[in-house]
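Hi V.,

You were right to ask for the full record rather than a summary. Here it is.
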Amino acid sequence: MKAVSLKKMGELENDLVEAFPNVNFIFTHGVSEINDHDKKDLDILFGYDGKLDEDFLKECPNLKWLAWYATGVNNLPLDYMNNHNILLTNGRGVHAKQMSEFIMAFILDDYKKMKVSFINQANKNYDSKLTGNRVSGEKLLFLGTGSIAQKTATIANAMDMIVQGVNTTGHPVDGFSKTYTINHLSQALEEVDIVVNTLPETQQTIHLLQKEHFEKMKDSALFINVGRGTIVEENVIANVMRENIIRQAYLDVFENEPLKPSNQLYEINNITITAHITGNGIENKQEVTEIFKRNLNHFLNKNALIENKVDPKTGY
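Predicted structure:
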């Protein structure tokens, strides 16, 4: 059994070799460093490299399992993987820890007017009358009720927020006071103060949010996007914010990444931008590797996976 990494693992390399002496591990910096010999007979790819594409997978005829270290799989050649019965796992759950903290940081940054305080500091303006708002009692709606939303809901509930969600079927989720089906999205948007997108990219979610959805929201609404930038077309969110249809947006993901310096979103005052960093964490590699190890043990013994399986047909 040959397992080839898509990134260097540091001290974790020795851990893997010692834990699985019957596996031939090859550690690389990514697809450009994997030689033709290893491509032909590798069984497992693990790690992350944004350059992995269908052409590369076609050179790996023996590939049985891709253990993707990121959560999002939308840029992978999913149709090819599905047609060739390549198993897929991801880093779901690990990144939720960082992302839940970022979501709450965005909310508190906005509600406690921290940006205004920073501007006051830069202008040497000491405004002791500046008053923020409480998050207690605010209605928080998640588009998508998966691991990111659930982790954040735990924190939000502890702060006495009212947590609601939208998912495919409207099924109930622990920590959510109410859930809606995706068909009732417009109704769900009317009732809340904060909307957070955590949905993955699928054919059903691309450009799901249109201008009329933002018009359904309260004028005072806060919109946060940490899911996928394709949930809303760039020109739509730009115009929505220019026209002050809602009050504020925090965007970590974008339809076209990376943003060029000339991008219009940089010029809109009620948009706060972070550079797709909400899932970053120094602990990620080790924690995703622990999932990989548990899956690898099961794969070697039972030829099956037990955690974080992704269906290439749906992308989640």
